[in-house]
Design goal:
This protein is mainly α. It contains 21 helices and 6 strands. It has a 4-stranded mixed β-sheet with strand order 3-4-6-5. A two-stranded antiparallel ribbon has the order 1-2. The protein is globular. About 50% of the residues are buried.
Length: about 575
């Protein structure tokens, strides 16, 4: 008892000691570290953007953005709303490619015609198209830092930003003229603003609605997050302590007014989102003309009712019909050497396990546990873990097992959650976190500049990814230019047989090749070059040709060269 009382006294009135030296303040240190992390990410993304040929989806988005710029109409790619392509259009405006609006064909053919058949330089056009997405990806890195700093101070912000900046998936898709990172980043921004709305709802709730609208105006898959965002908006206003906006806490007398204000907060977010979605279409075409260039599938039952109830332009609703049509298609998947038709509910978690650095996986898990277990972090759990779980659950029910890009929001949200590990009362928590971040950085830098086919060390690294996964996890058509260089340098004059999965045109890069699937097996002699995704799904004649050939080279960890 006496010892306890003495300890209490010492806690209250410490014994006099020599004056302590005031801590040395370095206000420049945190901004410097933030700048270095983002600079590293910039170098990685720009290098990737410069070296990679167009991936499968990019020509469609680039051609649609160019059509927006020249024709001011929504005609192509209705399955994705305009905002992401309007962002790409900023770069297209600087590239100023020649565009033949009279060309007829589907959206893929229009993209190929723009890049390879209109006198444009595809390297230049693609770099300019990718740059706005790179800038936006860096801006979302600042959101990650700010969100984590709100939770755990500057150290937590730096930890989260390091995970974000070294994420191979974020570097990969942040350097492409695609929509996955912009959509996920806008969602994260909306959730962060709703977190801040707990203190200043009048400022942050409307901004959160605009950010949510930006997500909905970029990819329709973000619709799954709408109920969560509305619930978080109501909860933030309910809990707010700002006089005149959220001063009625749950324990106040007038709960009715508190409920009305909470519902009003949700309504503000919904209204802001509606405004942005409609504005994205009006910016393209103030007359809202809609003339689909391809057939829009019919939907029935609950899907038809959902589409009809959406308060969005007709082009958006037709895009939803196209998406539902995609969901009904029997796509092929590939996981851990197994080729299958349809989808596996555990595909995305398994793919994330392969393609996420081991140190990052450990910090995600530790941070998520800390957010739930540590009392002062528990209020953040609905903002960080619930949107992640809902979006991942929705993505896992999809029919397209094509890659972790469908779950690109996971490394964003869980980077913020990982900062919560620093709140654990363990002597070595800070040192452990630092060691894991270093492990992540080393793993990421080692794969430079081949971020798209990245796999962590447990699965053999990027050279073995094609044995576990396919499509945008490893081989999305990005290495056609590298293949052309390798053939010129190492195999000049040899006969080439090519099975390429991608949107590029091999002949443009100087690759003269024939399709081995259209020739007699005995005639296929020389170099057999096969995209790894095509090899993973090979059956019949192609499988026999590969089995009877010898692997001699691997281009970018995504294209294998065999000799027959």
């Amino acid at each position: 008892m006496m010892a306890r009382e003495l300890h209490s006294v010492l806690d209250r009135e410490p014994l006099p000691t020599a004056p302590a030296r005031p801590p040395r303040r370095r206000p420049w240190l945190v901004p410097l570290l933030v700048g270095l992390l983002l600079a590293q990410m910039t170098v990685a993304m720009v290098t990737t953007a410069v070296q990679q040929t167009p991936t499968i989806d990019e020509p469609v988005y680039v051609a649609t953005a160019t059509d927006y710029l020249h024709e001011h109409r929504v005609r192509y790619n209705p399955e994705h709303p305009p905002l992401g392509k309007l962002i790409v259009e900023v770069g297209i405006a600087f590239a100023d490619p020649h565009y033949d609006a009279s060309f007829t064909g589907d959206q893929g053919q229009v993209g190929r015609h723009l890049l390879y058949e209109s006198g444009n330089d595809p390297w230049r056009v693609m770099l300019w198209a990718r740059l706005p997405v790179i800038v936006l990806t860096l801006a979302f890195g600042l959101v990650v830092f700010a969100f984590a700093r709100d939770l755990m101070g500057s150290t937590g912000g730096l930890l989260a930003l390091a995970l974000y900046a070294f994420s191979p998936d974020l570097i990969t898709h942040g350097s492409l003229a695609t929509l996955d990172v912009p959509a996920a980043g806008f969602l994260l921004t909306s959730v962060w603003l709703l977190w801040r709305a707990r203190r200043r709802p009048r400022l942050y709730v409307p901004l959160a609605g605009l950010a949510a609208g930006a997500a909905l105006a970029t990819k329709m898959s973000t619709l799954a997050a709408v109920p969560v965002l509305l619930a978080l908006a109501a909860w933030s206003v309910w809990r707010a302590g700002e006089p005149g906006a959220g001063d009625l806490a749950p324990g106040a007398r007038n709960r009715h007014r508190a409920v009305v204000r909470a519902l009003g907060g949700a309504a503000v977010v919904a209204l802001g989102a509606l405004v942005v979605v409609w504005a994205s279409y009006l910016v393209v075409d103030p007359r809202l003309r809609w003339a689909p260039q391809e057939q829009v599938p019919a939907v029935h039952g609950a899907r038809a009712l959902l589409v009809d109830l959406l308060p969005f332009p007709e082009a958006y609703r037709d895009g939803m019909r196209v998406q539902f049509g995609f969901e009904d298609y029997p796509w092929q998947g590939f996981l851990f050497g197994r080729l299958y038709t349809g989808s596996l509910w555990y595909y995305l978690p398994a793919a994330l396990l392969v393609k996420t650095p081991l140190g990052m996986l450990a910090l995600w898990l530790a941070g998520a546990v800390a957010v739930v277990a540590v009392r002062r972090l528990r209020p953040a759990a609905p903002y960080l873990l619930v949107p992640t779980a809902v979006l991942l659950g929705a993505a896992m029910t999809g029919s397209r097992d094509f890659g972790t890009r469908y779950a690109i929001f996971v490394p964003m949200f869980l980077a913020v959650a990982a900062s919560g590990f620093l709140a654990v009362r363990w002597r070595w928590a800070g040192a452990a976190a630092g060691a894991l971040v270093l492990f992540v950085a080393v793993s990421s830098v080692r794969t430079y500049p081949f971020y798209l086919p990245y796999a962590n060390e447990s699965f053999g690294g990027p050279d073995k990814t094609h044995l576990r996964l396919h499509d945008s996890n490893v081989d999305w058509g990005q290495d056609l230019g590298r293949l052309a260089d390798r053939l010129r340098e190492r195999y000049p004059g040899e006969r080439v047989w090519l099975v390429y999965k991608g949107a590029g045109v091999p002949s443009y890069y100087g690759i003269e090749a024939a399709d081995p699937r259209k020739a007699e097996p005995d005639a296929v002699r020389g170099l057999l070059v096969v995209s790894d995704s095509a090899a993973a799904k090979a059956t019949g004649r192609l499988a026999e040709l590969i089995d009877s050939a010898r692997s001699i080279d691997h281009i970018g960890h995504s294209i294998t060269v065999y000799r027959r």
